[in-house]
Amino acid sequence: MRVLIVDDHAVVRRGIRAYLEVLDDMEVAAEAADGQEALTRLDAMAAHRELPDVVLIDLLMPKMDGATAIGMIKTSHPDVRVVVLTSFGEMERVHAALAQGAAGYLLKDAEAGEVVAAIRAAARGEVFLDPAVARGLTQEIVSPPTGLASLTSRERDVLVLVAEGRSNQQIADELVISERTARTHVSNVLRKLRLTSRTQAALFAVRQGLVPPRA
């Protein structure tokens, strides 16, 4: 199977390539240093009908991060499977990657054999998760986070702006998102915190020490 390796560290790419290329069923089709370069390479491969089976991608990279790239890869080349290999195991990042269409999520302390297993599983149409990531997802199901811990970092930003009295449009302008997306974030904040109004959200933010009390 053909693999595209995407990581902004050349030494990481070379290490993965060296390991994969000794395997009989693996071929490294190309390398890319960021999400934008990965998309460019995939488009070029598609023009020659040489798309890889799997993209192995990091998350934090310059120009275009991995999560954004995953979504664009799945939109442009839906048959290409994507496996994340990153140093970051926060559940917010895991959710973002899986929501964009990732077929696997590994941490960089994984054994080489696990990386290969994840690539093979993705090529078969299966999902492969790092054991630590799987435990985190399971824990969320068994004991879902509540209160402030249930919010993503973006939702916390929205909560602070709501507490400051900003309208949805002002929140959108501040965060450089659409008004519709801002409205959705506000609704998610209220739902997760089990609140019914922006005033209650503002009071919650003050009690949590996120903003000072308004005069």
From TrEMBL:
Residue numbers carrying 4-aspartylphosphate: 58
PROSITE patterns: HTH_LUXR_2 (PS50043), RESPONSE_REGULATORY (PS50110)
GO term, biological process aspect, one: phosphorelay signal transduction system
GO molecular function: DNA binding
Keyword DNA-binding: yes
UniProt keyword list: DNA-binding, Phosphoprotein
Positions of the Response regulatory domain: 2-123
Domain HTH luxR-type: 144-209
Keyword Iron (UniProt): no
One Pfam family here: Response_reg
PANTHER family noted in UniProt: TWO-COMPONENT RESPONSE REGULATOR (PTHR43214)
Protein name as annotated: Response regulator transcription factor
Organism expressing this protein natively: Streptomyces sporangiiformans
Species lineage: Bacteria, Bacillati, Actinomycetota, Actinomycetes, Kitasatosporales
